[in-house]
Design goal:
The chain is α/β, with parallel strands linked by helices. The protein is 57% helix and 10% strand. It is globular and about 90 Å long.
Length: 801
C-alpha cells in the first residue's frame, strides 16, 4: 500500500525538476548570459551618471568663470548711471545712445541687404569659388574619363609676391565640401594660400561646381583629385612632389585618394578632419550623437528624394550653426556693435559662408555609412565603387601630418587621431611600413579657426609648410610636432619646432578608454535596417510625388537661403533703405566710448548669450543621456556585436615574420656608406625619442645637397631609410656591432662618425644618451671620440677640397 502511494506521489518528481531547473538557471549558459547583461546594464548606468556629472560640472564651472565679469560689468554700469543722475546728464547720454543705436540699426540692415544681394548674385552665377586671390582653371573634372564636378585651379600670385615655379614644392589645397563651395583656405591674405605664396611656393586649389555630375560617387571625386595632383607634379618636374592639404571633410577625402593611389607620395596635411567620427569622450563631443538620435541614414535619403536625388548642403550648415547657437547670436551682435568698421570682412566671409553646394545621394550616403555612422574608414573597412576597391589606409606611402585642437567641438582630437591606433597594430608597425605620421594638438582653437585663423595659419601651418623637406628625411615613425614661441631681441617672434617620438599610449591618453564607442555599432546596424525599410516602402511614393519644380522650391525656401533672400533688394519693404543709409553715413554721430548705455547694451548681449549657452548645455546633456539610454543598453550591445571590431596587439614574433622585415634583417651586414650613416641616424633618433628642427634641417641638407646622397634617387633613399629603420628598431645591438662591416675603409668610418657628430649639434645641447651612443659609434668604428663641436658639414668640406 505504501509503495503504491509512493508511486502516485508527484511531489518528489516536482522537487527533482525544480532542482534541475534551478541548476540550469544558476550554473548554465543562461546564468552566464544574465550576469553579462547585468554587468553591461551596470556600465550603462555608470556612463549615464558620469555623463550627467561631467556635463553639470563643466556648465557650472564655465558659469562661475563668467559670473565675476558679468557682476563687475553690472556694478560698473550702476555706478556710471548714478553718476549721470547726480550730474543731470542721464537724459543727454540716453538721447546720444538712442541716436547712435538707431543709426547702427539702419547701417546693419543695409549691410545685411547688401549681403543678401551678393548671396542672390552668387547663387545665380552657380556659386563659383569664393576666393580672395585671382585664379585660372587648369583642369576640369568633366573632361576626365570618369566625370565629376571638381576643377583644378592655379592661384595667381599678387604683384608683390613671387613664386618659384621651377624648383619650389607646389601645394595643392583641397577645401571641404561640407555644405559650402570652395573658399576656405584662400579667403584672406593671412590664409593657407597666402602663407604658402609668401614662402615662394606655387599654389593650386581644388574647387568644385555647385551641382555634382549625374550619378556622381566619391570614387569619381578621388579619381579626379588624383588626376589633379599628377598634373601638378607633371608641371613641376624639377620640384619635390606636391604637398596636399585637406581641410575638414577634405582631410579624410585626401586620405582616401592617397590610399587608392599609392603612387602619390607627396606629403599630406589634414586639418580638423573627422576620420574616426564616432570617437570622443563621455560628457563631451555632442555632435557625434546626432545620427543615433535622429534615425541614421534614412533621413538624408528622404531629403535627397525631396531634392530629386540631390542633398542640399544648406542642411549641413544649418546643423553646424545649431551646434553652437550662441556664436551665431554673437556674430550679429558684434556686427551691430562694430558695423562702422566690419563691413568689408563681413561681406567677404559671408559670401563664402552663404555659398551652398549640393551633393549627390551616392556621396552623402557613402559619407554617413563609412564615417559618421558606420565608422568603416576608421576601421579600415571602407570600399569605393560598389565594394570593388578597398580603401586601405595602410597603403599610403606619403608622410601624413595631422592637425587637431582641444577647442574643436566638431572634430575633437579623438576623431582626428584615433584612426591611427585603430588601423595600425602599434607604433613599431608604422616604422616597419616606412610611414611618417606627425600630429599636432592645439590647446583651444575652434574648428574653423584651424584653417581660417590667421594666428594658427601664421604659426602652426607655416611651420608645417616649411618643414616638409626635413619631414621626408625623418626616420619613419609616429611623432608629435611641438611648436614653441621664442621672442628675439628685435621684437620679432620666431618659433622653435621639435618632433618628439610618440607611442600609441600618448594618443590613447586623449581618450577615456573608448568606453562609449560600441553603441555606434548598434546605431549602424539599425540605420541599415531603417534605410532598407524606407527604400522598399516609402521611397517609391516620395519619388513619385517629387518633381523638378518642387525640388527647386524646397531648396529655395530652406531657412538658410530664405533668411538671406528676404533681407535683400528684392524685398519691397527695403526699397528706401539704401538712400536712408547714405543719409545716415553723412550725419553719423557715434556715442562716446564712455557712454554707460553702450555698456548696458554689451551687458544685455552677454546675458542673452549666457541664456543661449545654458540652453545649449541642457540640450547637449539631454542628447547624450538620451543616446546612451537608447543605444548603450545590454540588448543594443548584443544587437551591434557583429559589427564590433576588437583590436588585437601584434606580437613581436608576428612583426618579425613579415617578409619585408625578414628581408631587411637579413641585410643587416650588407651595404655601404649610405646605409651605415642612415642607420646611425635612425639609432640616434630612436635613442633620443625625437629630433629638433635645426638637427632635422642639417640631416635634410646632407641627404639632398651632398654626395654620395645627392646622386641617389629619392625613392631609393626612402627604401634604404625604411630598411635601416627596421634594423635599428628590432636589432639595436646587432645594428651597432655590424657597422664596421658596412664601412670597410678607415676614411669612410671617419667621415661617417664625423657626420653622426655633426647632425646633433653642439655637445652642450646633447642628451647624455646621445653622447653615450656617439661614444659607442667611436668604439665600434675604432675612431677617436670627438671632444669639440663639429660645426661644419664634413661632407661639404670634403666636396670643397
Amino acid at each position: 500500500m505504501s509503495g503504491s502511494f509512493q508511486r502516485s506521489n508527484f511531489a518528489q518528481p516536482i522537487e527533482v525538476q525544480r532542482a534541475a531547473l534551478e541548476d540550469v538557471l544558476t550554473g548554465g549558459p543562461f546564468r552566464t548570459y544574465a550576469d553579462r547583461m547585468i554587468q553591461t546594464g551596470a556600465k550603462t548606468i555608470s556612463v549615464l551618471q558620469l555623463a550627467f556629472i561631467l556635463r553639470v560640472k563643466r556648465s557650472c564651472e564655465m558659469a562661475v568663470l563668467r559670473l565675476p565679469g558679468l557682476l563687475a560689468s553690472g556694478e560698473r554700469l550702476a555706478k556710471d548711471l548714478r553718476n549721470l543722475r547726480e550730474n543731470g546728464q542721464i537724459g543727454v547720454s540716453w538721447r546720444e545712445y538712442i541716436r547712435d543705436a538707431s543709426q547702427r540699426t539702419i547701417l546693419l540692415m543695409d549691410l545685411l541687404r547688401e549681403s543678401g544681394d551678393i548671396f542672390l548674385e552668387h547663387e545665380a552665377a552657380g556659386c563659383p569659388p569664393a576666393l580672395f586671390y585671382k585664379y585660372e582653371t587648369i583642369m576640369d573634372g568633366r573632361d576626365l574619363p570618369i566625370k565629376s564636378n571638381f576643377v583644378l585651379l592655379r592661384i595667381i600670385p599678387p604683384q608683390d609676391v613671387t613664386a618659384d615655379y621651377s624648383r619650389r614644392r607646389p601645394f595643392v589645397i583641397i577645401p571641404p565640401r561640407a555644405g559650402h563651395t570652395a573658399g576656405v583656405g584662400a579667403h584672406a591674405p593671412d590664409s593657407q594660400v597666402g602663407v604658402v605664396l609668401r614662402e615662394g611656393h606655387p599654389v593650386y586649389m581644388v574647387g568644385f561646381r555647385r551641382e555634382p555630375e549625374q550619378d556622381q560617387h566619391l570614387s569619381y571625386v578621388a579619381c579626379a583629385e588624383a588626376a589633379f595632383v599628377r598634373e601638378v607634379a607633371r608641371r613641376h618636374p624639377r620640384a619635390p612632389l606636391p604637398a596636399v592639404v585637406g581641410n575638414c571633410q577634405a582631410g579624410w577625402a585626401t586620405l582616401v585618394m592617397a590610399a587608392t593611389n599609392p603612387d602619390l607620395t607627396g606629403p599630406i596635411v589634414i586639418n580638423g578632419s573627422p576620420v574616426t567620427a564616432v570617437s570622443g569622450n563621455i560628457g563631451d563631443n555632442t555632435f557625434r550623437y546626432i545620427a543615433g538620435i535622429y534615425g541614421g541614414v534614412w533621413i538624408p535619403m528622404f531629403l535627397c528624394d525631396l531634392g530629386k536625388g540631390m542633398f542640399d548642403g544648406a542642411n549641413l550648415i544649418h546643423n553646424f550653426e545649431l551646434l553652437n547657437p550662441e556664436r551665431l547670436f554673437l556674430k550679429y551682435a558684434e556686427l551691430f556693435r562694430d558695423v562702422d568698421t566690419a563691413r568689408g570682412s563681413f561681406l567677404a566671409s559671408e559670401k563664402w559662408w552663404s555659398s551652398f553646394c549640393l551633393l549627390h545621394e551616392n556621396e552623402i550616403c557613402w559619407i554617413l555609412e563609412n564615417l559618421f555612422i558606420g565608422n568603416r574608414l576608421g576601421k579600415n573597412k571602407a570600399y569605393l565603387g560598389s565594394e570593388r576597391q578597398h580603401v586601405d589606409l595602410k597603403q599610403i606611402r606619403a608622410p601624413i601630418v595631422v592637425f587637431a585642437s582641444h577647442g574643436d567641438n566638431v572634430t575633437p582630437p579623438q576623431q582626428a587621431l584615433n584612426w591611427i591606433t585603430d588601423i595600425y597594430e602599434n607604433e613599431e608597425e608604422i616604422r616597419v611600413r616606412g610611414q611618417h605620421i606627425i600630429y599636432m594638438v592645439h590647446n583651444d582653437i575652434g574648428h574653423l579657426g584651424i584653417f581660417v585663423s590667421s594666428k594658427v595659419v601664421n604659426r602652426e601651418f607655416r611651420q608645417v609648410a616649411t618643414t616638409f623637406e626635413a619631414i621626408e628625411a625623418l626616420m619613419p615613425g609616429l611623432y608629435e610636432m611641438c611648436v614653441k614661441d621664442i621672442q628675439e631681441h628685435d621684437g620679432r617672434k620666431t618659433f622653435s619646432v621639435e618632433l618628439v617620438e610618440r607611442s600609441f599610449k600618448d594618443i590613447r591618453a586623449l581618450n577615456d578608454n573608448y568606453r562609449d564607442e560600441f553603441p555606434f555599432d548598434a546605431v549602424h546596424r539599425t540605420s541599415q535596417l531603417q534605410a532598407q525599410i524606407y527604400h522598399t516602402i516609402g521611397r517609391p511614393f516620395v519619388r513619385a510625388a517629387v518633381t523638378s519644380f518642387t525640388a527647386d522650391a524646397s531648396r529655395t525656401v530652406h531657412p538658410e537661403r530664405l533668411s538671406r533672400a528676404v533681407i535683400s533688394s528684392r524685398n519691397l519693404m527695403l526699397t528706401g533703405l539704401k538712400s536712408m543709409t547714405e543719409q545716415v553715413r553723412r550725419s553719423r554721430a557715434k556715442a562716446r566710448v564712455d557712454n554707460p548705455f553702450l555698456l548696458a547694451e554689451a551687458l544685455y548681449v552677454q546675458h542673452i548669450a549666457e541664456a543661449i549657452i545654458f540652453w545649449r548645455d541642457l540640450r547637449d546633456m539631454i542628447y547624450e543621456l538620451l543616446f546612451h539610454s537608447m543605444w548603450n543598453t545590454p540588448f543594443q550591445r548584443y544587437f551591434g556585436s557583429p559589427y564590433e571590431v576588437i583590436p588585437r596587439q601584434m606580437t613581436p614574433e608576428e612583426l618579425r615574420s613579415r617578409p619585408d622585415v625578414q628581408f631587411a634583417l637579413k641585410m643587416i651586414a650588407t651595404g655601404g656608406f649610405i646605409e651605415a650613416l642612415i642607420r646611425m641616424m635612425a639609432l640616434l633618433v630612436t635613442d633620443r625619442g625625437g629630433i629638433r628642427r635645426d638637427r632635422l634641417d642639417r640631416w635634410s641638407r646632407v641627404l639632398t645637397q651632398n654626395e654620395p646622397f645627392r646622386s641617389v634617387p629619392s625613392d631609393r633613399l626612402t627604401a634604404i631609410t625604411r630598411q635601416q629603420t627596421i634594423i635599428a628598431t628590432l636589432e639595436r645591438e646587432q645594428a651597432i656591432e655590424t657597422l664596421p662591416l658596412l664601412l670597410d675603409e678607415s676614411e669612410e668610418r671617419r667621415r661617417a662618425y664625423l657626420v653622426a657628430c655633426y647632425i646633433p649639434g653642439p655637445i652642450a645641447e646633447m642628451s647624455p644618451s646621445t653622447i653615450d651612443l656617439l661614444l659607442r659609434f667611436a668604439q665600434v668604428l675604432q675612431q677617436p671620440p670627438i671632444t669639440a663641436d663639429v660645426t661644419e658639414n664634413p661632407l661639404a668640406e670634403m666636396e670643397a677640397e
